[in-house]
Amino acid sequence: MADSSAPTRVMMAVNESSLKGYPHPSISCRSAFDWMLSKLVRSNTDGFHLLFLHVQVPDEDGFDDVDSIYASPTDFQSMKQRDKIRGIHLLEYFVNECHRLGIKCEAWTKQGDPKEVICHEVKRVQPDLLVVGSRGLGPFQRVFLGAVSEYCVKHAECPVITIKRKANETPQDPIDD
Amino acid sequence: MADSSAPTRVMMAVNESSLKGYPHPSISCRSAFDWMLSKLVRSNTDGFHLLFLHVQVPDEDGFDDVDSIYASPTDFQSMKQRDKIRGIHLLEYFVNECHRLGIKCEAWTKQGDPKEVICHEVKRVQPDLLVVGSRGLGPFQRVFLGAVSEYCVKHAECPVITIKRKANETPQDPIDD
């Protein structure tokens, strides 16, 4: 049976792995992506249009560079340029996967506080559904980590699906992803 | 393209309307059901298996009956019997809709605290996805109303989709549904 209505536009917030480094997607967002393909999109590849958003947190990305010396405005420019390239490589993974499966998609990066930027982009782009992966941390760990998924469920102006990382995928330090 | 894998099992928590009374589904859960059909199931009716759970709160159901006189154990039995029948009529709405659309489904009722029973049933039934409607109340209103969706997002052992009631569907008193 053909799907005559407009495709369902699914926006997905994706981020880098803190373990495997550039340009690997985090365990949470990769597992959320796989889940979405197998459980929602299924064989109905024409019925969905995927929108990938990567929000870069400038401070966090620069965290490993405590020994770097910034001596001129150009040094910051090149750092920003490098961050941008990392983000684009991350998105490349998802766009390639969609292309392989024949699913239409778009991807873009933004800078800022992920939870606020995600909700702002939902308002701007108006997807039918927002998908957010979650590490499934306890309340104590969440306080220090921003709880992006919790914020989005409350504030995003569209239905939100929260997909927790599976227990058997949790790394030794659950804060890693 | 045929979908060869097992259908995606979607569990949905449904409740009665506080406005229209028996046996109408609440605005939130009806809108969540319609959204799920048009945006996720789409034309892929063979790819999904829907599971409807109605959790009855005995105290709440008896609230209108402040003038009733309970004189014997039989009076309670008949109240419980009546509650059960109301729940069954509510489920009938969803089962009929699925039957009309050719989507396989199952429906059942349980008694207890909705948020705890829902998470318990997720553990027992192991659906791929839990759908919960939400009135989209603010933090002050939520304190007094249990925040079923918020609890399920944190505690249910499967991905959870929260679908907020639309602004144009909110009744005069937002606590109504």
Protein architecture, described:
The structure is a homodimer of 177-residue chains. With 177 residues, the first copy, chain A, is an alpha/beta fold. In chain A, 41% of the residues lie in helices and 19% in strands. The interface between A and B is medium-sized, with 27 and 27 residues. Chains A, B: GO terms for molecular function: AMP binding. Chains A, B: InterPro entries: At3g01520-like_plant, Rossmann-like_a/b/a_fold, Universal_stress_UspA, UspA. Chains A, B: This is UspA domain-containing protein.
Secondary structure: elements and pairs:
2 copies of one chain form a homodimer.
Chain A: E1 8-13, H1 27-41, E2 48-56, H2 58-61, H3 73-101, E3 104-111, H4 114-125, E4 129-134, H5 139-143, H6 148-155, E5 160-164
Parallel strand pairs in A: 1-2, 1-4, 2-3, 4-5
Helix pairs in contact in A: 4-6
Domain UspA (chains A, B): 26-164
GO molecular function, one term (chains A, B): AMP binding
Organism (chains A, B): Hordeum vulgare subsp. vulgare (Domesticated barley)
Keyword list:
homodimer, 177 residues, alpha/beta, five-stranded parallel β-sheet, 6 helices, 5 strands, globular
